[in-house]
């Protein structure tokens, strides 16, 4: 059986292909990484007056929540890295085994404390603030160095209620 194609049909097919190409194009900053671990939220502005004094300060109130969104895979955080956008490179690398079961989360807090799988907390063992109150970029890297998740925020654009906390990935 012979099929006939008309010029109009060829033009329509070409136009449809071009339209799909445009619709499927995604800007680089909207890239969704394939990692099970993602940034769930950030308390970038600790409640109270900012003080990085290890005894009386509030840097423990600044934290980043990382969640395992996998439904079946446990992830070990050892070697994962969290970084901000500063030139000085505020960076934290998870130094030891900390396992996140599917659906579980961990809060990476400022200040000194005892890490606990049971309490879902890891301390940076540093009393300096990591996140800028006005805005910053949060980078989460896998232990092999590849991107797991990235979010850029500004207080005015992303924190509508002004409480210093922003939620990502629900």
Structure description:
This is Lamin tail domain-containing protein. It holds the Pfam family LTD. Keywords: Signal. The chain is of the alpha+beta class and 170 residues long. The protein has a single domain, classed as Sandwich (Immunoglobulin-like). Helices cover 13% and strands 29% of the residues. The protein has two helices and eleven strands, in the order αββββββββββαβ. The protein has helices at residues 7-24, 155-158; strands at residues 37-43, 63-68, 75-76, 81-83, 91-93, 99-100, 105-109, 121-123, 135-141, 147-154, 165-167. The strands form three sheets. A five-stranded mixed sheet has the order 8-7-2-1-11, with no helix packed on it. Strands 5-4-9-10 form a four-stranded antiparallel sheet. The radius of gyration is 22 Å and the shape is globular. The termini are far apart. The model is unreliable at 1-31 (pLDDT under 50).
